[in-house]
């Protein structure tokens, strides 16, 4: 394993992929979307529920796939709770910028541990893995 790959699969990412947080379907989700990434075999279902204030009150996911796709989903569920759908979209765009290497996050603090996935930019075929949960959540929240 070279240094870049070792960095990509650092401990935090492996921990999230082995013990995903917020794993499971929600009771009475307001929104749900399925995403898959055939080139890697990743599949994910994301469930969300919005509170009366229109913000994400709960979010969960189920799925299977590579460590990057599962860790990204797990970390995402920890960061989007309490955020409005428009903030979630801004976070997704920030996250996309760092995993593609197109730029830096405008609000890195909001992404927290997700920034550890920036090593994905050295593996372009893995960008879809990292973005899968985000694209599913974005689809689930469409029109919200
Ligand atoms: Zn994958």
Question: Helices, strands, pairings?
Answer:
Layout: H1 3-8, H2 11-18, E1 31-37, E2 42-50, E3 56-64, H3 67-80, H4 85-100, H5 108-111, H6 127-140
Helix pairs in contact: 2-3, 3-6, 4-6
The structure holds zinc ion.
Account of the protein in words:
- With 144 residues, the chain is α+β, with helices and mostly antiparallel strands.
- The protein has one domain (3-142): Alpha-Beta Complex (Sufe protein. Chain: A).
- It has helices at residues 3-8, 11-18, 67-80, 85-100, 108-111, 127-140; strands at residues 31-37, 42-50, 56-64.
- It has a 3-stranded antiparallel sheet with strand order 1-2-3, with helices on one face.
- The mean pLDDT is 94.
- Bound molecules: zinc ion (ZN).
Give structural attributes.
144 residues; alpha+beta; Sufe protein. Chain: A; three-stranded antiparallel beta sheet; binds zinc ion
Shape: globular
Describe the biggest sheet?
3 strands, antiparallel
Q: What would you call the structural class?
A: alpha+beta
With helices defined by DSSP (H or I, 4 residues minimum), what is the helix count?
6
The helix/strand series, from N terminus to C terminus, equals HHEEEHHHH
CATH architecture: Alpha-Beta Complex
The strand order across the widest sheet is 1-2-3
Quaternary state of this entry equals single chain
Query: How many extended strands?
Result: 3
First-to-last CA distance? 43 Å
Strand content: 15-25%
Radius of gyration: 14 Å
Highest-level CATH class: Alpha Beta
- Give the overall pLDDT as a whole number: 94
């Amino acid at each position: 394993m070279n240094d870049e790959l070792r960095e990509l699969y650092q401990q935090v990412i492996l921990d999230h992929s082995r013990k995903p947080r917020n794993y499971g379907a929600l009771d009475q989700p307001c929104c749900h979307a399925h995403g898959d990434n055939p080139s890697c075999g990743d599949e994910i279902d994301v469930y969300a529920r919005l509170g009366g204030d229109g913000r994400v009150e709960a979010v969960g996911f189920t799925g299977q796939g590579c460590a990057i796709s599962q860790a990204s989903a797990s970390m995402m569920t920890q960061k989007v709770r309490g955020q409005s759908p428009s903030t979630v979209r801004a976070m997704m765009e920030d996250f996309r910028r760092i995993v593609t290497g197109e730029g830096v996050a405008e609000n890195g603090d909001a992404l927290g541990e997700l920034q550890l996935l920036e090593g994905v930019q050295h593996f372009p075929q893995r960008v879809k893995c990292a973005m899968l949960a985000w694209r599913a959540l974005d689809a689930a929240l469409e029109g919200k």
